Amino acid sequence: MSARTFPGGIHPAYHKLTAGSPIRDLPPPAQVVIPLHQHTGAPCQPLVQKGDTVRKGQKIGDVEAVVAAPVHASLPGKVVAVEPRPHPAGRDVPAVVVEWDGSDATVDLEPHPDPHDLEPTRIAEIIREGGLVGLGGAAFPTAVKVRPPAGTVIDTYILNGAECEPFLTADHRLMVENPQSIVLGLRALMKAAGAPRAIVAIEDNKPDALEAMAAATRGMPGVSVEAVHTKYPQGSEKHLIKALLGREVPSGGLPFHVGVVVSNVGTAAAVGELFATGIPLVSRVVTVTGRVREPANLRVPIGTPFSVLVEAVGGFNGDPLKVIAGGPMMGVAQYSLEAPVVKGTSGLLVLGPEDRVPEPTSCVRCGRCVESCPMRLLPLYLEAYYRAGMIEQTEALHAMDCIECGCCGWVCPARRPLVQSIRLAKLEITARRRRAAS
Amino acid sequence: MLEAILVMAVSGALFGGLLAYAARRFAVPVDERAEAIAGALPGANCGGCGYPGCSGLAAAIAAGKAPVDACPVGGARVAAAIASIMGVQVDTARERQVARVFCGGGPRCQDRYAYQGIPDCRAAAAAAGGGYKACSWACLGLGTCVRVCPFDAIFMGPEGLPVVDKEKCTGCGKCVAACPHNCIALVPVSARVHVLCRNRDRGPVVRKICQVGCIACRACERVCPTGAIKVRDNCAEIDYGLCTNCGACAEKCPVHTITVEPEERREESVAAAS
To answer: Which CATH number do you get for residue A206?
Structure first.
């Protein structure tokens, strides 16, 4: 197995503190807060009211939009509120608050242990009803991803097990402990997308995961397991495609434009569970790590407040400086531990005072951001133009292609807030395009 | 000698004739009124009128597409000058509008977290929670309005809240557009009583996060003799057309959200800042 990769990128310290910790089931919390908007696309409308009793797996929110995924109750109990609550993305979002009744009452489940007998559209339907979204972080509805526009031919399905974000090990542990679910999920996804071949891509710093996945996929026609070079952001779908197939997703395009669909291994595992047992997406694995007493990989019901997670790992180790939902490179800093685990929450990272970023100094034109940018952009000029209010120039320099991976900011010796500037430029460009369209 | 004079005279006549012909043949029609109007306008190209710069507005006025008093910066004087160029009467001189910051929070409004990043309100407002302040309508105090003001009419006050210099402010509205929390608005220059809050949350919520936020108790509404102040959507609002600057509401306000500016605000605020 040759370690393949893409140009650019960085080699941060990996800090995979929990690579050897088996996934632990967390006892259900007293209350779960389930936001009605946990995916990319249109937010769900609540299907329950305050005072209703719900069972585990019951659909509590849905919407009639193409790009959307329903949400389900992750615990049985009583709905005590339907109101805006903090969301890890940073804004208050309408949420259903369920108080656990102590039971294990689950809705009647309909398993489909052999997805190969089903029609592709039926598989996509089951995936949609199961509330499946990409569990790697972007939370794009899986049912939409596997059914690209008519006329598109998907020749390769890539399962993304790179897990290139430092600290996070949720996918790693899933591959080591539960490769069967991943394989079953992959079968369903391949059938739905009509892909004759699949590649499971794993960074070469996870030999045990490579071994487990190779063993689980042995004898499966068209499925191979490939080691990719350990480099951030290897887990970006565009860069995986480049590394594995040498194809480049066009600017503004999606993987299906080059005949590929990429899903996270966590997503495949959840799809596997859905087909094996019929249980919709009501729990996920979260790596709780950094400055906490006992870093761990926890399987928790969706909607578990972050405070419960911190408690489960023995609390903070010293004074926390920042609590981040996700990894250190792309995660979102939290201001409240009331925010809950959502479908896209892969980790909860606590940083200490020693991780404080120094104040930025002037750009020295060293060009390291340019070298590190995996999208081949010019971060220093994007920032300078944004600061000067020259939004047209940032657009001309393809600001919209930025994947916000954070490599430029990480290598910058002047510690300039490059990604923040580019994000703001993108917001402004999007706002202008919307104004121009209306 | 004679040859030289002849050559010069003939070529001079030839080129002169060419130029005269070209001036006629390729003349660009210019609306003289537009030029005169452009001359009367302030020339700051602030865009406050909504047209691309002063010449843009001048062309629009000359073409009859904009009213003669469309320049918010120039005020009555410029409007009168343009009216005389256009040969019309200005209907009634509108009162000058100036910017006003509608947040009195500053240190009295709680912070939700410490913001680290680009020191610009628009950047901070795009961060988690819509800004580091506990109130989604609060002034973030990073001075974006100060930087966008083309007339140097806004400066940061001692409490980290921007102060508008009413004399310098021309009402161009650049700060109003730049403020991500929409806490700046244009008000008539003579209005001295203001509700310094835009928070639309319910009273108990506001009380928890801000000492001076409007709690929608309606005490002001009951005491106002002209019915100028009304609580709408959990926040008091003043109809400046009805307000007489009596200040009765400010006296009654239990959380001191309503302020009465002294008559000569300019000297006072400048003295406080220096």
So the answer is: 3.40.50.11540
Quick one: pLDDT at residue A3?
65
Q: How much is the average pLDDT of A29-46?
A: 94
Q: Is residue A316 part of a domain?
A: no
Query: What's domain B32-86's architecture?
Result: Orthogonal Bundle (1.10)
Tell me the pLDDT band of B91, cut-offs 50, 70 and 90: low
User: How would residue A51 be classed by pLDDT, with cut points 50, 70 and 90?
Assistant: very high
**Using 50, 70 and 90 to split pLDDT, how confident is the model at A403?**
very high
Q: Is B122 on the interface with A (CB under 8 A)?
A: yes
**DSSP class of residue B27?**
P
Short-list A275, A224, A256, CA closest to A140: A256
Q: Are B108 and B212 in contact (CB under 8 A)?
A: yes
Residue predicted with more confidence, A183 or B80: A183
> What is the structure's pLDDT at B274?
42
Residue of A nearest to B130 (CA): A91
* Interface contact B112-A335, CB threshold 8 A: yes
The tens digit of pLDDT for each residue in A427-437 reads 999 999 999 98
A261 is written with which tokens?
A: 């669909």
Domains: count for chain A: 2
Query: For the stretch A30-49, what's the b/e string if a residue is b when 16 or more beta carbons lie within 10 angstroms of its beta carbon?
Result: ebbbbbbbbbbbebbebbbe
Q: What is the pTM of this model?
A: 0.82
Give the domain ranges of chain B. Answer: 32-86, 97-273
Q: Is residue A102 part of a domain?
A: no
Tokens for B183, please give them: 């806490």
Contact yes or no for B122/B143 (Cβ under 8 A): no
Element (DSSP H or E) covering residue A386: helix A379-387
Chain B residues with CB under 8 Å of A332 CB are 128
State the average pLDDT for chain B. Answer: 88
A235 occurs within a structural domain: yes
CB contact under 8 A, A424 and B112: no
Q: Which fold has domain B97-273?
A: Alpha-Beta Plaits (3.30.70)
What would the mean pLDDT of B91-113 be, rounded to a whole number? 86
The complex's ipTM works out to 0.78
Q: If you count residue pairs, one on A and one on B, with CB atoms under 8 Å apart, how many are there?
A: 32
Per the model's pLDDT, the better-predicted residue between B27 and B230 turns out to be B230
Residue pLDDT, tens place only, A317-326? 988 999 999 9
> Which residue on chain A is closest to B119 by alpha carbon?
A417
Q: Do B128 and A423 lie within an 8 Å CB cutoff?
A: no
Contacts of B129 in chain A (CB under 8 A): 90-91, 335
Q: Answer yes or no: are the C-beta atoms of B47 and B41 closer than 8 Å.
A: no
B8 touches chain A (CB under 8 A): no
Tokens of A423: 């994000």
Cβ atoms of B36 and B161 within 8 Å: the answer is: no
Domain limits for position A143:
115-277
Q: Which residues of B touch A420 (CB under 8 A)?
A: 117-118, 123
Are A402 and A266 within one domain? no
CB contact under 8 A, A420 and B118: yes
Task: Count CB-CB contacts under 10 A for residue A333.
Answer: 18
**What token pair was written down for A420?**
């923040």
Whether the CB-CB separation of A331 and A339 falls below 8 Å is answered with: no
> Which token pair is A82?
């339907």
Contacts of B201 in chain A (CB under 8 A): none
| pLDDT tens readout for residues A345-374 | 999 999 998 888 889 999 999 999 999 999
Q: Is residue A96 situated within a structural domain?
A: no
Q: A367: phi > 0 → left, psi -120 to 50 → alpha, else beta; which?
A: left
